[in-house]
Structure prediction request, 578 residues.
Amino acid sequence: MSAALQTAGLCKSFGALAVAQNIDFTLPHGARHALIGPNGAGKTTFINLLTGMLTPSAGTVSLLGQDITKMRAHLRVQRGLARTFQINTLFPALTPLEAVTVAICQRRSTAYDWLARLSKRRDAIDETYALLQSVGLAEDCLRPTKELPYGKQRLLEIALALACKPKVLLLDEPAAGVPRGESDDLFAAIAGLPDDLAILFIEHDMELVFRFARRITVLVGGKILREGSPAEIADDPQVQTVYLGSPRH
Amino acid sequence: MSHSAIDTHGFFRRQAAWRWPEALFWLALVAAYFIFPGNLVLISRILVLGLFALSLDLILGYGGIVSLGHAAFFGMGAYAAGLLSAHGWSEPLSGLLVAAAAAGLLGLATSFVVVRLHGIALLMVTMGIALVLHEIAQKARDITGGDDGLQGIAVAPILGLFRFDLYGHTGFWYSLIVAFLCFLVARRIVHSPFGLTLQALRENTRRLPAIGVSVGRASATIYTIAAMLAGIAGGLLMQTTQQVSVEVLAFERSAEVLVMLILGGAGRLYGGLIGAAVFLVLRDRFADLSPQYWYFWIGLILVAVVLFARNGLLGAFDAIMRRLRRSPS
Prediction:
């Protein structure tokens, strides 16, 4: 059976600056895979290449065995590839109920329906509420997004991605900026994601990485440095050098 | 499923429910016929330009698409209905349908360029499209009549029964009914699933593709619908005044409709209608005071509204009502 997501020889350059270099990467079905690396390693660029927000200079991206390299971003989502953003990218004036309803209407092919009453789409509204409940946002679902605490906004990021019913979910630093007091709900939401969903997440919080990842890829300078189990990565001297610096002689 | 603590269905139902100020607004327009019988032409003009501003509200207030060339569709509608009439087809209702179709086709054709742009580039391109049309209309004087206007326009009685008159009685009711029906369509759009998608488009064009929505399709759809409504407004102006000249395509038209919407409050459905009423009544009064400098006062009011009531007159009204409700009685 083909991988959930795969890249072959993926490259991206901005002028002379190569930000992704010949990346061969495979994400199996149901994976819990972390992508780590120092700042500027090209992690978010890699996610942007996968999701179609950037066009690769060379190489291919395949989703569920289908080449999606030239497919537009929204069509990739419709085929099962969803993402969250490192910096909250939400709909500030909309409530979580409204925002997630847009995503669910889109999945149900009613997002462009301009003659129906929204209040009559009871199934979509119920599905939205159930999803918000599952990530712990039910109580806040009628508050404008801009008024939600940061941790709740991070949860809404995940809820919006899940509303697309993805087969592959890319989480770009889901815990970034979340205060300790608000991180429990976030960790619970990530732990509760369906087993058959393939997840690739970028994270700097090593506690989160070692808690959830079954495989880790280390990216440095736009290239894959190492890939292995958490134990292999933790013991790898090259990875330690990248993170802790060269030992002094 | 009804959620005992949080009424999610009721949330959307309440958003779409008719409120008493809305009923009052439309009843006031009906009452205006009896209270201001000497101003029916002005009120008809308010309804026509209010409809034009409402069409702009759909793209700007709801979709977040700014335009400085919305007169292109208004003018296209006016000329489509006018040319039809000048060439012997004087039935007004079908004239409005042709106006909507012609403006809608122009909207659809130009949407493919417009949906790819943002900010200043979008402003320039929308303005440029209207300017190009204006110049084409100027050059094609044999067809459009140029500044002198189209010759030979005759509009038949509505439904064969109601003849347009000099005092604007028929024009008033015709404008009111057409504006109300178009308003109902706009209101339905705003409270539909697509209306919610539009609000998401206004809020964040970057996030929308990441939930599977095509920004291009959503933008092109609302742009075309808004063009059709603007075309109907143009056709209505032509039919109620029985004249059309290249002035309907002028940059001033696009600028004025934007001013009307900002004055009234964008993204509120009624902002365009209220803005058109305020703008035209003030222009009427200020023109009496100083015929050459009335724009000075309009400009001053616009600056005051933008500085002190960012969401327009309706936004200020909402804010006052909220404060009154919050303050203890």
Chain B touches chain A at residues 1, 3, 5-6, 8-9, 11-13, 15-16, 188-189, 191-197, 199-200, 203-204, 206-215, 217-218, 221, 225 (CB under 8 Å).
